[in-house]
Amino acid sequence: MSYEYEDELERMKRRRQEKRKQGASSGQGAASGSGRRHRDEGDYLSSRQEEFENRKIRHSRAMKKKRRRKRIFLAVEVLALIILASVIFSVIKKQTDDGYWTIAVFGVDSRDGNLGKGSLSDVEMLCNIDKKTGEIKIVSVFRDTYLKIGSDEYHKINEAYFKGGPKQAVAALEENLDIQIDSYATFNWKAVVDAINILGGVDVEISEAEFAYINSFITETVNSTGVGSYQLKSPGMNHLDGVQAVAYARLRLMDTDFNRTARQRKIVELAMEKAKNADWATRNNVLVTVFPQISTNIGIDDVIPMAQKLGDYHITETTGFPFSRETKIIGKMDCVIPTTLESNVVQLHQLLFNDTDYTAPSSVKKISDKIAEDSGLTEVGENAEPAKTGGGVVPKQTEAPVQETVPETEIEESSSEEETEETENETEEILEDESDPEDGEGSVSDNDDDENDEIGPGNNLKPTVGPIHPGDTEKKPDMGLDREEPTKQTSEESGPAGPSGQPDASEDKSPADKIPETTVFAPSGESGPGQADTENGPGNAADGPGSQQ
Hints:
Helix content is 46%, strand content 14%. It has a 6-stranded mixed sheet with strand order 10-6-1-2-3-11, with helices on both faces. Strands 4-5 form a two-stranded antiparallel ribbon. A two-stranded antiparallel ribbon has the order 7-9. It is elongated and about 185 Å long. It is an alpha+beta fold. Helix 3 packs across helix 5 (242-249), helix 4 (208-225) packs across helix 5 (242-249) and helix 5 runs antiparallel to helix 6 (257-277). It has a domain at 1-97. The model is unreliable at 399-416, 426-465 and 473-549 (pLDDT under 50).
């Protein structure tokens, strides 16, 4: 029994120990579960943070991709715009290159530098440039052409420039000729002189008639521009500098104003060829020198590209307008009448723009009818012969009067009368000298009845071949004429005009003191090359717009 009791006690102890062990193990298990729980929570937080970080990274990458896509899209848009702009520019450029550039060119007889209204436009040209082919066609509008120049006014076309400068002149040409003028350029003699001098001059065949007049024009051009030159020695082929070329372009006294426009166009053609063969430095020098002297609405940026590619351009045709014409007095003006304006305008468009289907609008027809009514020339005329150079009429040389043999008895009877007349003449000369104390011995008398107060290149002074300097009035040696006593001259026979178009101040000096290096006096009463043209005909150098007979 004791053994069983002991065994029972042992079993109870073992059960208690086992319980203790189980309790300890259960406590350890609980502690172990709590650690696992904490470890799980930390892992959860770590995973969440990692996921958040990953999400940020993914978002950042997505944003970068999005921005990259935006940049690519923007670049594509810009490229598309550039391509589109290039296409549009190419189309516009092609349309522009395929079109025409029409320029109105005016040359004014301005000796005071004025290029605006108040100046007479002796040169009026239409210069039409085909941008695709480089062809240039030049048409001179005759300055005495009777056209509409205002709202209701009809006059010579150069009156438009005189009254309103280039703006009104361009408007008149556009209205009468139904053309769109894109640009204009106005120059004076000095600009042309400088341009041709820089290009090295031009070679021109001078006829006998042209030679008879050109040297007096050279003298006047020297005095007007202030640029020195030489007079020509003989007709034939001559190398002309700027002054001589301008003088040549102004000649008309030996033939007509129509032929003068042909000389002007010839100088333009020759200068164009010299410029095409010149290097860029020379062309640039022309631009730098001449461009500041002209009045124009053409920008230098438009001129430089053309000057750089001047070899691509060529003058194909030059002519004068109107093609069919007659001269007629309207009011007190000698005018060039287009017969008719409508038919001439149709020909002009065919020439300039190759427009064979052109018909004149009602506005041109209305002007044409008014011109026909004023002139009485209503029928369409035939085209006149083209103007030309190298012709003209050589002026007749004045012959010395033939001396007749006078019987001795008549000589004796008239000797006393001649002595009396000589005494009276001497007395009159003394009184004239006293009445004008500024005039010296042999002063040039003023003719109050002379209607031509302006002394142009028309004078009776025979040229030498020496150099000409502006304002040269130095006394020169005798040129072979017997001048024991100075011969009185009228203002019509005096020397070339100064820049103002009026007689030079040297008229107050004696003829011997005021002889320019290039001229000598001719006997009083003679008329010769360059005599002042006082007739109010078409193209008269002394004519102003609306000049009267």
